[in-house]
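Entry type: protein chain
Record version: 2
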Amino acid sequence: MVTNLLKYYLSNCQKRINERIELINSRRVSLRNSRDIRYKKLKKIRNTHIYKNKPKIIKEIRELDSDILVEKLSLTVAQSLIDNIKLKPDLISTSSIKSDEERMRSENLEFRTLQELFWGVDKEFTQKDKFNFFLNLFLDLESDEEYSFYIEKILLDYVPYARELAFEQYTEHYKNYECIFENDSKNNHVDTFAESVYLFCLSDVSETIFENFLEFLRSDYTYESKDSNGRYQLKKEIIHFQNFEDAFRKSNKDILEPILNKNTNNSLGNRAYSILLDDLKLGDELMILDISRSSEEYGYYITRAEKNEMDVMLELLEASEVYIEQLENLQKDIFGNIEQEYFDSEMFLIKASHRFSEDRFLKLLEIKQIDEFESTVK
């Protein structure tokens, strides 16, 4: 259900572990070179220092594809990482005063909790963290039987995404025929899926859902286990990679409840989407009429106001296109240029989704390079 989301956190965890070890090793070199006798024998952290019984597991966790963390990073191994990844191995950083202990552990570059090691939840989260959460979550739920309807409604709030989806559905329907409409939306944006997620992250609803998810990560996972007598007992443990999918499945309604209740009926993108679908159907009718009617019949099929029927239909299509352009411009007036903001932000990812356009990316990159060059010349 949440394959992409789990992969994202697996990769982050592996990166977090390696970066912490590299930072500690760098600091240890400085301490050793300080000529302070206390640090004379301080060595770099090796895999054998972290989990001496099976250092190969640590090597695999650090160097292989991050997917292996589901299997290898058990709670036992994770606790060993917490106990042994620290700047000064002999420093006692426990205290009866919680704030003092947190300060000492932080200064000693220790992971303070298992949750921090697995999920990074003890640090302050950034907008980039939130964006990547929703990007991967929506990629997972986009095809989920229970949630796909709600995710599509949210994504459709973004007019360029609505335009692209409408054309996509039209061309899929007529893939064996020559289409009357040319899909000009495919390369007009760098990634309408990611841009739509970026827009959603500006909403209060996104903040609530993300806070729900963080609270979920800090909670306990409850499960049944047989005791030595064969009786089932309820047990609790923290949420980690091996139980994440089952824990999320049990809690997803509480986490995602704001999505289920979000009213998107009046969104600009939904308006554009509905109009485009109607226009595409109208275009089909026009195509059939154009084929079936001769030029001699031009004045025969007229409206009650004595206008040529096909001319009126074409005017309607043109008026609809103008209106959709106005909706897109209005969305820019309200939220700014979402595509440009996303492209210029630290959130931007190449091939973030299946809607990534390499042609548009190269075009935006070219424009950016020209602008940077011109700014240096001035």
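Comment: The longest strand covers residues 220-226.
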